[in-house]
Structure formats: structure tokens, C-alpha cells
């Protein structure tokens, strides 16, 4: 085991000053354009789109011949011939679009975006050509472009998106009973485009059609244009408006990544000493929901290479959220991420969808896999050499050849058992050989033999300098940890060895460590309130929180304004009819004379406008003791040889039992 100094865990409540705020960077998330695409996609997109839209232009020009030859010239036999000629470009559109889709299969978003750009460029060319014939013909195109711009912006940015399916009460039973996966997918998927976006495009195109007819008809009436061209002019305006609307939709509509991504990811500046860390450094990492409520608060971790750190805590403590924030902050849907994370001095947040060498790997409770064989998923669709290396990692985790044979035989991932999928997920993580392993409940779905093999492999990787941050409740895995971080309500409330944390829990003591600052009062209040979970405990919560707040104020009263004095530790334990609260900090010892003075002030409290913090504690508590303790009674990483301890006994009541009038008044 390493010493606690190798893992620094603090809570920094400070906010960036103006100079730091100027250095905050809002990071762009990975987009479809960042993902791998052939270099020749755009040139071929131009060719396919030109061919397809050329066919569409031929359809728009045909009305000239229908009007002049059939309607005016009376050549009725030419009508079916011209109709047959119209079928040729229509078939051409189908052929070119089908070939385009087949040539760029798997690149649908890139294909759609490229085609929209080319169509808009062609629309501009057509508009310029008609404008050269007569300046007034620029009017319908210009108005269509402006209206399309405004309507597309409003439809995609101002109109709320609706879910794919509004689940009715009678339908929810089937979904939640696991009998309707399609319904669940529809109900939880929000389309990227607004439902009114199609209407906006249709309105723009119809307006262009009408304005094109109007303009061409006026020019015909004034003798500038042949009447045969009226229909063609209207159709070209209609086509150009659809092209403009498609381009603006690509410009304003949120992409699939944006529809399921974080609101923003802001990288805060690191202190000079923090940027030099060789391991995993997390500074001031916070996550907020859309209403601004913190779901992860000011997390600071500094983990040296070769360390194993465990995360523990109750449900909704923030363990999984912390791991996901480190590995993939852009994937936190509708959340706002702020802070800084570095691995060996480099940020893992600045990434691309093309990365194959990764600094950190997140292994979630449920294995991740892509459509394909188990072998492809094991080696991340690499070559034969990659597969051999990945198979070696798998063989070290499973002791039966059945799983290895099934993977080698090209079995689909979906056909593997739950434990085999888990083994494949873990083996893939070790094959990638990142500097940091982020494991979220690795014991889920794993057999005891797989868990034991995982524990051995973790120890091997640590000897080579790898870092592990593991959220787990498994005793075997947690015993590997050099340090265990306890989380509650999105905050780090304690840190120690696995044995230390387990001992504290077994003897009934709970512990919170926070910055020695008045800004830690919110964390202290939240932690204490969680100790009283029974109905009717409001009075207990209020009384204990008030006393603890005064203790925190007493701890901070000898600090200069804006100064932080290291850390302060609070410990709490329930007893029958009372509870104990201890505060441990690095302040000056409390003399017996000062205690007597505070006691006297507490007894005269009615005549004192504002009691000193310790006097307020003595007024509301059953007893107060102050002493000095040596370092060995608490964590070694606090950096002090001895600590000041204030121990307070506070009366509590059992809400399940009737209270006397005196207790109720208290």
C-alpha cells in the first residue's frame, strides 16, 4: 500500500476570479465532421449532386416545350413523347441518388451535409443566371433565401423539440415491464430537428413558387419574357428555395451529437503546480443541471501513477457521474460541465471521434459493443495483430477455452452470455493499455472467478504505472485500493484506506472533510441532514446543523479574509437521546480560560446581541469539550502534527416516540 500523500483529495469551494475567468475555454464536442470519412467524399459528392440536380433542372425546363409545342403549336402527338422524355431524368435522379448512397454507405450525415452545400451553391448559380437575363428575377430567389433563413433559424432554435413518442399510461406497463424495447427507444429519443422545420421549408418553397410565377408573368405581360418560360421560372424558384432551406437546416438544426450532448464543457485554468502532475489530476470539477443545480460539486483529486483509488457511497452519490465526467463530459446530456482534468499534464477532454490511442478508458457496468463479431469488438475492429494482443488479454481473465474459442470463431456479441460480454469488455480495456482505467462497478455481471482474475490483472497493471479509479462495492476489489474516496450528494466527504473507512462505518461514525472555509457550510449542512432520515426529524436536523455551522465559523474565525486554512474534519455518531459531533482542525488550542469565558457568555446569552460562535455552541449543546490530538488518530495527509478537537454532545429525540412539552419547546 502507498501512503495517503500519494493521493490528494480536497474540496475547493473557490470560484474563478476575473483573470481566471478570462482563461476559461468552452470546448467544442466531437461532431460528425470530426469522424473518419474518405478524403474523396466531397469531390464525388459534387459530381453525384450535379448529376442528380441536372436531371431535376431538365424536368423544370420541359414545361417550355409543353407550352410552345403542345399547348400553343397544337402538336398533340408530342405530349406523350415529351412525357416519356421526362421519365428519363426522373430515373436518372433515382440512379444517381442510389449510387451516391451506396458509394458512401455509413456516412449518411456527411453525405447529407455535402449534398446540401452543393445544392445551395447550384441554386446561387441558377439565381445569378436568371438575374443576368433580367435583374427583377433576382427578387424571388433573394426573398426565398431570406425567408428560408429566418424560418429555419426560428424552427430549429426557438421551437422546442418533441419526443418521438408520448407514452400513454396503459402503454407504459409494457415498456417498463421490458416487453417493448421499441417503445422505450422512441420515448427516450428526441429528434434533432424540430417538427416545424419541414413546414418552414415547404412554406419557403411555395412562396418562391408563387413569387416566381408572379415575376415571370409580369415580365411576360411587359413583353420581356416569353410566356412559355413562366412555368419553368416558377419551378426553378421552387427548386432553389428547397435547396436554400436544406442548407439552412444543416446550418441551424442540432446534430445528433448536440441532441444528446452536454449543454457546455468549460475547461478552467489549472494552478501552476497542478499542471505538472504526472498522474490523474482533477481540479474544481463540477456538473450542473439545466436549472443550475450542482449534481457534482468542486471535486479535486490528484492520483499518482501506480495508484488504485476506490469510490464508494450510496445511491445518487455521484460516483458514476464523476467517472463519466472524466472520460466523456460531452456525453452528459443536458448537463453543464466545468473544471479541469489532466492525465500526465494533457487534457483528455480535447479529443476526436477518430482517436485510437486513448489516455483513459471508461468501463461501464453494462458492456459497450458495436454491431459485429465478438472478435471485432474485442480488438476495436483492428487487424490480426491487434486481435492477437486482445486475445492475450482475454485469456488472462478467463480460464476456460470455451469463451476464447467462441470469440475466435466469429460469434456475434449478442450471442455471448452476460459474463462473457463482461470479460470481453474488461479484456478490451486492458488491450487498449491507457494510462487511466475508470471502472464503474466492474463486478456487475462478472463471475467470482472473473472478479478474482480482474483483481490480479489490476495489480499487474499498477506495477507498470497505470492508474485505477474504481466505483465498486466488492470487498475483494476495494481491498486492493490504496485509498477510498467516499461520496455523497455529488461531493467528496471522506477519504482514507479501505480498512479505515470500513472501521469508521462499523463503529457508527460518519466523517466529512472539507476546505476550512465558510463556503463549506453548504456541504456540511447537506451531509448532516442526510444523517437524519426519519419522518419527524426536522427538529434534530435543524438543531445539529445550526451547532455545526457555528463550529465551522469558530474554526474559520482566526483566518484572514479570503484565506483558506487547509482542511477541517467533522465526525458524527448517533446515540440514544443524543448525538456526538466532533470538529478537527489545525487551529490554536482552546484554553480552559477561554472555555469559561464562552460558557459565561452563553449563560448570559439573552443579554448579548450576537454570541461568539463557540458560545452559541455551548448555549445549544449538552456539553462541549476541547482537546489536542496527535496525527495518528486521523488521516496522514492533513499535514499537521496535531489537531484541535472540539467535541459536542447534542440532545436529540426519537420522532417515533411521544415527546414531553419541554422537549417540543426545545
Can you give a write-up of this model?
The protein is an alpha/beta fold. The chain has 4 domains: 1-29 and 267-359 and 434-490, Rossmann fold (3-Layer(aba) Sandwich), CATH 3.40.50; 38-159 and 194-259, no CATH class; 372-432, no CATH class; 508-665, Heat Shock Protein 90, CATH 3.30.565. It is 46% helix and 17% strand. It is built from 23 helices and 17 strands. It has helices at residues 18-23, 41-72, 78-103, 108-133, 138-157, 169-176, 181-188, 197-221, 230-252, 256-259, 319-327, 374-378, 384-395, 401-408, 418-432, 448-463, 475-478, 498-506, 521-529, 538-556, 592-603, 613-620, 661-665; strands spanning 7-11, 25-26, 264-267, 280-288, 294-303, 308-312, 336-343, 360-363, 436-440, 467-471, 483-488, 491-496, 510-515, 567-575, 578-585, 623-630, 642-651. The strands form 3 sheets. A 6-stranded mixed sheet has the order 1-5-4-7-3-2. Helix 5 (138-157) runs parallel beside helix 9 (230-252). The longest helix is centred in the first third of the chain and has 32 residues, at 41-72. The chain is elongated and about 115 Å long.
Amino acid at each position: 500500500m502507498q501512503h495517503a500523500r500519494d493521493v490528494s483529495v480536497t474540496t475547493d469551494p473557490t470560484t474563478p476570479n476575473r483573470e481566471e475567468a478570462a482563461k476559461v475555454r468552452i470546448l467544442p464536442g466531437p461532431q460528425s465532421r470530426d469522424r473518419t470519412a474518405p478524403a474523396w467524399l466531397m469531390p464525388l459528392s459534387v459530381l453525384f449532386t450535379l448529376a442528380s440536380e441536372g436531371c431535376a433542372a431538365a424536368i423544370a425546363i420541359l414545361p417550355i416545350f409543353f407550352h410552345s409545342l403542345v399547348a400553343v403549336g397544337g402538336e398533340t402527338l408530342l405530349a406523350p413523347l415529351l412525357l416519356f422524355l421526362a421519365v428519363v431524368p426522373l430515373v436518372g435522379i433515382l440512379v444517381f441518388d442510389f449510387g451516391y448512397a451506396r458509394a458512401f454507405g455509413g456516412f449518411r450525415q456527411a453525405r447529407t451535409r455535402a449534398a446540401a452545400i452543393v445544392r445551395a451553391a447550384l441554386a446561387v448559380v441558377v439565381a445569378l443566371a436568371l438575374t443576368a437575363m433580367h435583374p427583377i428575377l433576382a427578387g424571388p430567389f433573394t426573398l426565398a433565401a431570406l425567408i428560408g433563413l429566418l424560418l429555419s433559424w426560428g424552427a430549429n432554435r426557438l421551437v422546442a423539440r418533441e419526443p418521438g413518442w408520448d407514452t400513454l399510461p396503459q402503454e407504459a406497463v409494457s415498456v417498463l415491464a421490458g416487453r417493448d424495447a421499441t417503445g422505450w427507444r422512441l420515448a427516450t429519443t428526441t429528434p434533432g430537428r424540430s417538427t416545424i422545420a419541414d413546414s418552414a421549408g415547404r412554406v419557403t418553397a411555395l412562396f418562391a413558387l408563387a413569387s416566381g410565377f408572379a415575376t415571370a408573368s409580369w415580365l411576360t405581360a411587359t413583353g420581356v419574357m416569353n410566356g412559355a418560360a413562366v412555368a419553368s421560372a416558377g419551378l426553378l424558384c421552387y427548386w432553389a428555395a428547397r435547396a436554400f432551406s436544406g442548407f439552412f437546416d444543416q446550418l441551424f438544426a442540432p446534430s445528433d451529437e448536440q441532441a444528446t450532448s452536454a449543454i457546455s464543457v468549460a475547461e478552467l485554468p489549472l494552478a501552476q503546480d497542478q499542471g505538472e502532475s504526472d498522474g490523474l489530476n482533477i481540479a474544481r470539477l463540477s456538473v450542473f443541471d439545466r436549472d443550475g443545480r450542482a449534481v457534482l460539486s468542486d471535486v479535486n483529486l490528484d492520483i499518482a501513477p501506480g495508484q488504485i483509488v476506490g469510490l464508494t457511497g450510496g445511491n445518487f452519490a455521484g460516483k458514476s457521474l464523476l467517472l463519466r465526467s472524466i472520460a466523456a463530459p460531452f456525453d452528459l446530456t443536458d448537463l453543464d460541465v466545468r473544471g479541469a482534468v489532466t492525465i500526465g499534464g494533457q487534457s483528455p477532454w480535447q479529443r476526436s471521434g477518430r482517436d485510437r490511442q486513448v489516455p483513459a478508458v471508461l468501463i461501464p457496468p453494462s458492456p459497450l459493443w458495436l454491431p459485429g463479431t465478438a472478435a471485432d469488438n474485442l480488438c476495436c475492429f483492428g487487424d490480426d495483430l491487434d486481435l492477437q494482443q486482445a486475445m492475450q488479454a482475454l485469456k488472462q481473465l478467463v480460464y476456460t477455452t470455451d469463451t476464447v474459442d467462441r470469440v475466435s470463431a466469429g460469434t456475434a456479441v449478442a450471442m455471448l452470455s452476460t459474463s462473457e460480454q463482461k470479460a470481453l469488455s474488461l479484456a478490451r480495456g486492458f488491450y487498449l493499455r491507457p494510462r487511466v482505467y475508470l471502472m464503474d462497478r466492474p463486478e456487475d455481471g462478472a463471475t467470482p472467478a472473473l472478479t478474482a482474475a480482474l483483481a490480479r490483472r489490476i495489480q499487474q497493471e499498477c506495477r507498470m504505472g497505470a492508474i485505477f479509479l474504481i466505483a465498486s462495492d466488492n470487498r475483494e476489489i476495494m481491498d486492493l485500493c490504496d485509498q477510498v474516496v467516499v461520496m455523497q450528494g455529488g461531493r467528496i466527504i471522506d477519504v482514507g484506506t479501505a480498512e479505515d473507512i470500513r472501521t469508521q462505518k462499523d463503529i457508527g461514525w460518519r466523517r466529512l472533510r472539507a476546505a476550512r472555509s465558510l463556503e463549506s457550510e453548504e456541504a456540511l449542512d447537506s451531509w448532516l441532514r442526510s444523517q437524519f432520515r426519519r419522518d419527524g426529524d426536522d427538529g434534530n436536523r435543524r438543531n445539529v446543523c445550526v451547532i455545526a455551522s457555528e463550529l465551522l465559523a469558530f474554526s474559520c474565525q482566526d483566518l484572514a479574509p479570503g484565506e483558506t486554512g487547509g482542511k477541517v474534519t467533522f465526525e458524527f455518531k448517533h446515540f440514544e437521546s443524543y448525538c456526538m459531533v466532533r470538529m478537527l482542525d489545525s487551529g490554536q488550542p482552546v484554553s480552559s480560560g477561554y472555555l469559561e469565558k464562552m460558557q459565561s457568555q452563553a449563560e448570559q446569552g439573552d443579554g448579548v446581541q450576537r454570541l461568539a460562535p463557540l458560545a452559541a455552541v455551548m448555549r445549544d449543546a449538552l456539553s462541549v469539550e476541547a482537546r489536542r490530538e496527535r496525527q495518528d488518530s486521523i488521516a496522514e495527509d492533513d499535514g499537521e502534527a496535531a489537531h484541535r478537537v472540539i467535541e459536542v454532545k447534542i440532545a436529540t429525540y426519537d420522532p417515533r416516540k411521544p415527546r414531553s412539552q419541554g422537549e417540543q419547546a426545545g
